[in-house]
């Protein structure tokens, strides 16, 4: 009897064992059904949704500070070299372009226009400060003030500078300084793990928050909220298609065979789409890189780094979803706000790519930095899993595009693709996939 009862998992354990994608999907459907059944009376559960929004906002500042510091400090200034410089430049430039694509398409399609959320989510009209003032204010005069006031760009600037300084400390020839740097990096890494645990806890609560907020919205607006969400989904996937065409152009510029490339990378693309994990797709991506003829000296750096830094798909999602939030709240985004959102998206990609729910966290950062209300973010969270499949696929495709391009520019790092494919396939028949 004791043995049987000990083997039976508790209700909470069973809940934790369910994939988040299914929990959010069920929450979305139940929220719509509850809103249609109870109508405006469902507003009684609004506090459950407000708690979810406050939890997301609470995590933004510590997440920005610690993950960005840890990400920068983990790269040695002495060992990056040519391959590292090219890889980082490629990832940051394509992420910035992807963010621009997401924002531009959303401004063109205008998802969310005409949808009015209950609860006074309209943003107050305020004059946007000049761009020069925004750039100046990126440098904080008081980091603690920036943290308490939620100044995302200022905190990012401090984290970048502190991360570079910490990297130099760890690599110092002075043993005393290197020892203190190692201790400090362990402390920062520990803080990152603490934040990740908090994020996992918030994500376990997210289905309740999503259910409450969507139920209230549908209860107040009927089915009017569903069409804008379809428009947002179409916008994000349209941006993904545009970015893939950009990759095709880059590959053609470096004289890569487009047909050969997509034949070899279709497996990791499909794996990423299904699993929604760049890290989980890494072994499949490595095999694809070998079939493309890329040497280990390149892909052993570009692919692991890309799975944690390259976020082109997420950048499109964040750009489009931020415009969606602005449209729902009736806000006309100024040039300053657009530039701020783009900067946050690009810089945040350095530290948050490996975080569970990274897209939702980055969207929270962007919305906070743009000074927009958080309530519409819950609507986006309800369809986040659908968007996550496409953006993860794009992230992995970008990783392999960068790998192929960097290998082409490095002497001796690219073999003949046909021979490499034959070798990789024959090796794969006799041995397990590389990890």
TrEMBL record:
Endpoints of the signal sequence: none
Region listing for Disordered, in residue ranges: 413-435
SUPFAM superfamilies, alphabetized: Proton glutamate symport protein
Main location: membrane
Entry keywords, A to Z: Cell membrane, Membrane, Transmembrane, Transmembrane helix, Transport
Subcellular location: Cell membrane
Transmembrane region(s): 20-39, 51-76, 88-109, 152-170, 191-217, 229-254, 335-355, 361-383
One Pfam assignment: SDF
Membrane-protein topology: Multi-pass membrane protein
Entries under InterPro entries matching the protein: Na-dicarboxylate_symporter, Na:dicarbo_symporter_sf
Source taxon at top rank: Bacteria
Name of the featured protein: Dicarboxylate/amino acid:cation symporter
Organism: Nesterenkonia rhizosphaerae
């Amino acid at each position: 009897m004791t043995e049987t009862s000990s083997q039976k998992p508790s209700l909470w354990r069973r809940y934790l064992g369910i994939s988040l994608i299914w929990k959010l999907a069920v929450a979305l459907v139940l929220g719509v059904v509850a809103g249609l059944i109870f109508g405006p009376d469902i507003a009684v559960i609004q506090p459950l949704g407000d708690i979810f929004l406050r939890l997301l906002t609470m995590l933004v500042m510590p997440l920005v500070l610690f993950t960005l510091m840890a990400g920068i400090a983990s790269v040695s200034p002495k060992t990056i070299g040519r391959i590292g410089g090219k890889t980082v430049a490629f990832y940051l430039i394509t992420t910035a372009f992807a963010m621009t694509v997401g924002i531009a398409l959303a401004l063109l399609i205008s998802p969310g226009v005409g949808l009015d959320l209950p609860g006074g989510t309209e943003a107050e009209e305020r004059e946007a400060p000049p761009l020069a003032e925004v750039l100046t204010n990126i440098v904080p005069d008081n980091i603690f003030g920036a943290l308490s006031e939620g100044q995302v760009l200022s905190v990012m600037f401090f984290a970048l500078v502190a991360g570079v300084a910490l990297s130099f400390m760890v690599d110092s020839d002075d043993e005393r300084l290197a020892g203190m740097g190692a201790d400090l990096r362990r402390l920062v890494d520990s803080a990152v793990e603490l934040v990740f645990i908090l994020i996992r806890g918030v994500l376990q609560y997210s289905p309740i928050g999503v259910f409450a907020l969507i139920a209230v919205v549908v209860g107040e607006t009927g089915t009017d909220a569903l069409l804008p969400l379809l428009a947002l989904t179409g916008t994000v996937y349209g941006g993904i298609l545009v970015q893939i065409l950009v990759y095709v152009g880059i590959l053609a510029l470096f004289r890569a065979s487009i047909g050969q490339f997509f034949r070899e990378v279709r497996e990791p693309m499909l794996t990423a789409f299904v699993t929604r994990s760049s890290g989980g797709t890494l072994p499949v991506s490595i095999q694809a890189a070998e079939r493309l003829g890329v040497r280990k000296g390149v892909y052993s750096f570009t692919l692991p780094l890309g799975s944690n830094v390259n976020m082109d798909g997420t950048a499109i999602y964040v750009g489009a979803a931020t415009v969606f939030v602005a449209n729902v709240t009736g806000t006309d985004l100024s040039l300053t706000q657009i530039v701020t959102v783009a900067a946050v998206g690009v810089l945040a990609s350095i530290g948050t790519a490996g975080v569970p729910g990274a897209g939702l966290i980055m969207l929270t950062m962007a919305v906070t930095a743009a000074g927009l209300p958080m309530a519409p973010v819950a609507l986006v969270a309800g369809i986040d899993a659908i968007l996550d499949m496409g953006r993860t696929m794009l992230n992995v495709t970008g990783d392999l595009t960068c790998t192929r391009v960097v290998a082409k520019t490095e002497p001796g790092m690219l073999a003949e693709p046909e021979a490499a494919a034959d070798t990789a396939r024959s090796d794969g028949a006799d041995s397990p996939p590389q990890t």
